[in-house]
Every structure is written in C-alpha cells, then in structure tokens.
Amino acid sequence: MMTSLPVKLLLSAAGYCTHPEFLTLRGGSLRPVTFPAGFTCMLHPTHGPVLFDTGYSGRFFTETARLPNALYRHITPVVFREEDSAASQLREAGITPQDVRYIVLSHFHADHVGGLRDFPNARFIYLQKAYDAVKQLGPLRRVRAGFLPGLLPDDFAARSLPVAAASAVRPFEPGFPFHEAYDLFGDGSMLAVELSGHAAGMIGLFVSTERQDYLLCADAVWSSRAFMENRPPHPAAGLIMSDRREYKRSFELLRQLHTHYPAVRIVPSHCREALAVWGTGEWE
Predict the structure, then answer these.
(1) What share of the chain is helix, strand, coil (3-state, %, to 5)?
(2) Angle CA 52–210–228, to nearest 5
(3) Which intervals hold domain Metallo-beta-lactamase (predicted)?
(4) What is the pLDDT of residue 166?
(5) Domain contains 284
(6) Do the domain assignments include residue 228?
C-alpha cells in the first residue's frame, strides 16, 4: 500500500468541456472530444469526506457571461447541469455539502475550483505558489491562466491551509520516481506531490484504499493514453502551460511510475477512459 492509512474513494466528474483532441494528445484527432471535469471524494477515518477538486458549477456561466472572461467559455465550450455538481452528487451518496471539512485543490483553473462556494464549512489545502501565481493577475492574463477569481468564496483566505502550514514532508522509498511528498494530515493517508508545468504549483495526490493505490494526477496529462503510449500534448498546448520544461518533467514522472509501478492507478482529471473504468459510482 502506497500510504499508511487507507481511505474509501469515489471518482466522478462535474460537467465537461470539449476541445480538439490533437492539442492534448500528439497525433490525436482534429475533431472535438469531451473532457470530463473530474473530482474525487475520499472518506477519511478521522476527517470524514475530503474532496480533491470540485469540477464545474453553474457559477462558471455567471463568471463568463461578459468579456474578457467570456473568451474562456468560447474557447473551451462547457456542458453542465445542476445535477452534475459535486454537491448534488455527494447528496445522492448521503453526504451533505456541510459535511465536507477539507478540499484539496490541485490548482486554480476554473474546472477544478468551480464548486468551492457549495461547501461552506470546507478548509482549502493547496500549494502556496499555485495561488501566488494567479491571485495578482490582470483580467486578460487571468483568462489565459484559466482563473476566475469570482469562483472562490469571499472568505477564501481565512479558510485556506496552504500546504506549508498544513503538512510535513515525507520521503518515499529509494528508487521511487517521486522523492518526497507532503503528508497533508500527518497520518500518511494523503500524500501530495508537485506536478508543476500545466499550472504553477499544481499537485497530485497519492491515496490508497484497502485494495488499490491511486495517484490523482490532475492535469499532468489530459488522458491515460498520453503516459501509456508516450504521447505528450501538441507543442501548441505549451501556450497555456505555466512552464514547458516543468511539464516535461512531470510527464516523465508519470511515465516512470506507470512503467515501474504499473499497479498504481494513475487518474488524470479529464480522462474519459479512467472515469469509465474506475468512476463507476461505487466506493472503492
């Protein structure tokens, strides 16, 4: 087991966007394909339900109703129904939004933080440099960075627990592709690793159930085929990356993990195939 304290895990998605496949997968199709806005709920034995990202919410359309934010929804058209929201899906699973005490944010793109306002009691865990990279941007640069500040709760700062203040560093075994992780709760249950490149300070999360190890890798790749077949995104995708060199490093870490530890389930946030196989609506 990758972690020292197992959790229960539910993979799902809150809405989706469409985009030409070739931009996200070298040699992919020119036609638009769907990219689900994945989120994960984990049942921690002490802290209860913990989310990794939230997917979209209806507020995305409010925040992108006018220029320049409207550019975002036209470049990546979004399909979303209220019943698709993370909050609605959790209610169906018997979890109220008020029950969620922690949300781990991989990064601050709108398709990952869109539902934060639905969880009034949650504290927010993220890498400080991820927020620092977007919080001072002007309107046009925010759109390019995929950041819509109106999606964040008004008391976001007061409810934040940046990783440096919330966790300790934990080394992995020698020879493991990742050298160390942030132990978010200090009990070995959720180990965050930096996967910068797509966005500055983006993190992935190692978690384990009683039967299976997972790496929730956010947008380090857009599909499992990318690391399985060694097919990084088209060079044009670099226009929206925070750092192309760091992206290549994160991509290579996934390749090494898949090659040397194939039993670990690597879950990209937007991978249709991974959600189809593992996002069955049942707790793992």
Answers:
(1) 30, 25, 45
(2) 60
(3) 37-270
(4) 54
(5) no
(6) yes
Query: Which two tokens mark 22?
Result: 């070739």
CB atoms within 10 A of CB 126: 23
Percent of the chain with pLDDT over 90: 88
For the domain that residue 176 is a member of, what is the CATH number? 3.60.15.10
Per the structure, the count of domains in the chain is 1
Domain range enclosing 169: 8-278
Rounded to an integer, what distance in angstroms lies between the CA atom of residue 225 and that of residue 202? 21
Confidence grade of residue 201 (pLDDT, cut at 50, 70, 90): very high
pTM of the model: 0.96
pLDDT at 170 exceeding the cut of 70: yes
Q: How far is CA 124 from CA 46, 185, 242, in A?
A: 17, 13, 22
Question: What pLDDT shows up at residue 30?
Answer: 87
Sheet holding 102-104, edge to edge: 78-79, 8-20, 32-44, 48-52, 102-104, 123-126, 160-162
Band (pLDDT 50/70/90 cuts) for residue 72 is very high
C-alpha torsion sign, points 104, 106, 109, 110: negative
Distance separating alpha carbons of residues 152 and 112, to the nearest angstrom: 11
In a domain, residue 255? The reply is yes
Q: Is residue 227 part of a domain?
A: yes
How far is Cα 178 from Cα 193, in angstroms, rounded to an integer? 8
Q: Tokens representing 14?
A: 């809150």
Judge whether residue 167 has pLDDT over 70.
no
pLDDT per residue as tens digits for the range 30-54: 899 999 999 999 999 999 999 999 9
Helix (H) or strand (E) holding 168: strand 168-171
